[in-house]
Amino acid sequence: MITAIVLITCDVARIPEVAQEIAALPGVTEVYSVTGEADLVAMVRVREHEQLADVIADRLSKVEGVVATSTHIAFRTYSSHDLEAAFSLGLD
């Protein structure tokens, strides 16, 4: 599974509509409204690298109201259990 985190800048008047349209796209598992430079963050999960172009470049970026995107591909996934172990001091 390939996971991409897509930071989305959009027309502020259409944030809810853009978020809903993006959330309905195949391959998009979550969309978050966030603070900061991006307006939305979308989690995209696909089986093959080539599918990223279909989801992000061919569909997501063409949703009316999307102004710009910045895509970050995840190398490795850590579960909350893994993070707890990584930061554990070894004390019970």
Question: Can you describe this structure?
Answer:
The protein has 92 residues and is an alpha+beta fold. It has a single domain, classed as Lrp/AsnC effector binding domain/regulation of amino acid metabolism (RAM) domain (Alpha-Beta Plaits, 2-Layer Sandwich). Helices cover 27% and strands 33% of the residues. A four-stranded antiparallel β-sheet has the order 2-3-1-4, covered by helices on one side. A hairpin with a 6-residue loop joins strand 2 and strand 3. The longest helix is centred in the N-terminal third of the chain and has 9 residues.
Order of helices and strands: EHEEHEH
Give the overall silhouette: globular
* Largest β-sheet summary: 4 strands, antiparallel
Distance between the termini: 34 Å
Strand order of the largest sheet: 2-3-1-4
Count of helical stretches: 3
Q: Helical residue percent?
A: 25-40%
Q: What's the CATH first level? A: Alpha Beta
What is Rg? 15 Å
Tell me the CATH architecture.
2-Layer Sandwich
Mean pLDDT across residues = 90
The fourth-level CATH homologous superfamily is: Lrp/AsnC effector binding domain/regulation of amino acid metabolism (RAM) domain
What are the low-pLDDT stretches, counting only 5+ consecutive residues below 50?
Answer: none
- Say what the CATH topology is: Alpha-Beta Plaits
Tell me the structural class. alpha+beta
Quickly list its features:
alpha+beta, 4 strands
Layout of helices and strands:
Elements (H helix, E strand, L loop, with lengths): L1 E9 L4 H9 L4 E6 L6 E7 L3 H8 L8 E8 L6 H8 L5
Antiparallel strand pairs: 1-3, 1-4, 2-3
